[in-house]
Amino acid sequence: MATRTDAQSPAPHAADIHDVIRVHGARVNNLKDVSIEIPKRRLTVFTGVSGSGKTSLVFNTIAAESQRLINETYSAFVQGFMPTLTRPEVDVLDGLTTAIIVDQQRLGADPRSTVGTATDANAMLRILFSRLGKPHIGPPSAYAFNVPSVRASGAITVERGAKKAVKATFNRTGGMCTRCEGRGNVSDIDLTQLYDDSKSLAEGAFTIPGWKSDSFWTVRVYAESGLLDPDKPIRKYTKKEMQDFLYREPTKVKVEGVNLTYEGLIPKIQKSFLAKDKEALQPHIRAFVERAVTFTTCPECEGTRLSEGARSSKIRRISIADACAMQTSDLAAWVRGLDEPSVAPLLTALRQTLDSFVEIGLGYLALDRPSGTLSGGEAQRVKMIRHLGSSLTDTTYVFDEPTAGLHPHDIQRMNNLLLRLRDKGNTVLVVEHKPETIAIADHVVDLGPGAGTAGGTVCFEGTVEGLRAAGTVTGRHFDDRASLKDTLRKPTGALEVRGAKANNLRDVDVDIPLGVLAVVTGVAGSGKSSLIHGSVSGLDGVVSIDQGAIRGSRRSNPATYTGLLDPIRKAFAKANDVKPALFSANSEGACPGCNGAGVIYTDLAMMAGVATVCEECEGKRFQASVLEYHLGGRDISEVLAMSVSEAEEFFGRGEAHTPAAHRVLGRLADVGLGYLCLGQPLTTLSGGERQRLKLATHMGEKGGTYVLDEPTNGLHLADVEQLLGLLDRLVDSGKSVIVIEHHQAVMAHADWIIDLGPGAGHDGGSLVFEGTPADLVADRSTLTGEHLAAYVGA
């Protein structure tokens, strides 16, 4: 053994000095030359009001550059298949490690995507059944509802040396149900919703949204195909014409010298509307589908999506369909009971995955749950599952509000998971508003001081104790606790729900009071959404604002999304005696150089594309002639550059007085978006800003009852106060407000609480409390009661 002779401690190794991620001069979106140092192998929480720049710094700067640098290590050929990422606007980014992003982006809404397929649990189950299932029906694909059975035979020519014809047969066993094609439900189409049979095609018989009479690809291919008489009313078609019109196989036809494909109306509608998940469709298309199509559970597979063969093969009297229908906590227990040495490694991996579901608070989900029906918080936690058992260390995990959609009871469990990832030697970066999660941070970065252009600077950097003492918005509100109200409103009536059985609900009978602020709460998976969206949302006069993502391209902005641009265009048109279409950057008024985008995009294949400001319009998006028309001394590009507050004043009086525009702007200011620029692309808005933009839009709809699904998602503690004020104003104006919520401040502010539980999945689905918040606190009979009592200090 060699012995040390020197008494001095050795100098640190050069590799050990890189213990911070250094950001210098970040200018992405609203960031104003931000420079910070983030400690590695620590838990850092980024906080600040909604729109202050947290996502811009963490996701669009640090995580984006890490991903871009990793992508550059692949060959040019491989990079051609990957998304092209531009280098963020930042001077220096040092000390980056591989970033794993776990965000709240919804999982794919394809009807064949389920929780099982998204987490690879289905793939492991299929292998398990192909090895142990009795009777044995084939390889893993025989248990897959996305794989159809295929049989073929015939002669093939093998070009090897002398050409030779060989007889070949091909056979693949799939598990897809032939009737519903692996979707679990079948659709019947109401033909009266597709066309008016008293009219001919030439008279515009189609009543399908988006099918305009001059459309080359839809209406005209039917009218000018030569297969149908365009001037004959549809009800007078012969049997053959009706067959061609509704069901004809794809056929090549020539319309005005162009080769097009003619296809029967029913298969065309099925491909264009029904192949997509209903929740992913635009609202007016979804309304059409709900009118025209009735979805019923497939009678052949009973909604399991699987063929009879796949359902017949069982392990201990359980088929793969039964296994996928179990909630994961029960399935984990069943898998633990299997002891088969031949598949021991597979069983170990499957157990780990299923145990991760339970550990992360998703034990109530079933593997056959469609992924499009998961909330943003559930989707984020499903993505976390694959990282929990990972052996990777020294990576950077980036989380976007991991407590979204979690009951206070579940937040402690999420905190433990974040700390566990850190303790394995990883850097954990979390964007968060909940004080319970901020409190466990090793390092806090508070951005602000305001939102939008008023934000983008680092207001505080240091420990949680330092944040409490700091004078920032977050520091001042950190220990805020809402108190129970002294006076409660009296209900003006009640909405009766009887025998609710959707999903895990157990014959729930409840009277939801009207004319007050009613909060529906309970642990995640207890049945809140099933009760409200299943029994209340579809009723007349009910305006439902769910957690669905706002869809919009870089051409969409708050003005187009809220419908604000319509009255503005009409006001400009009236003042200048021209057409309203001139004042749309997506229509006649668009700059010809950039087609109204304001920038010109140059695609450089696998290299990051370049966006340069259009020289013709200088980024204003409109033709020069359009900018000569004014309203109240401003042109249309100057109006779109205004903030909501400026525009509210501009359209409120004087020559530009436009009541319709002023009303929309008032709603945007009410939800706390006064700082937002009217022409700002939707793609640059934060999650909290999108949530409030959606709320402002729906507030304009006519209805006596508003249903809000977790409106505090993405909101800072200071913004929650403003939201409570807005809910009070809605109720005081004569509306009824029903809120599905976990935030204790909203519960404390309620007039009436409905608590579901006691647990999640099949342990929930029952009404465990209904009454006032004060009664719930005094009772402490439920998990919600305990946490609310602790919150208000009772």
Automatic annotation (TrEMBL):
Residues 15-474, 482-783 form the ABC transporter domain. Signal peptide: none annotated. It holds the Pfam family ABC_tran. SUPFAM superfamilies: P-loop containing nucleoside triphosphate hydrolases. It is found in: Cytoplasm. Keywords: ATP-binding, Cytoplasm, DNA damage, DNA excision, DNA repair, DNA-binding, Excision nuclease, Nucleotide-binding, Repeat. Transmembrane segments: none annotated. Belongs to the ABC transporter superfamily. UvrA family. This is UvrABC system protein A. It comes from Streptomyces laculatispora.
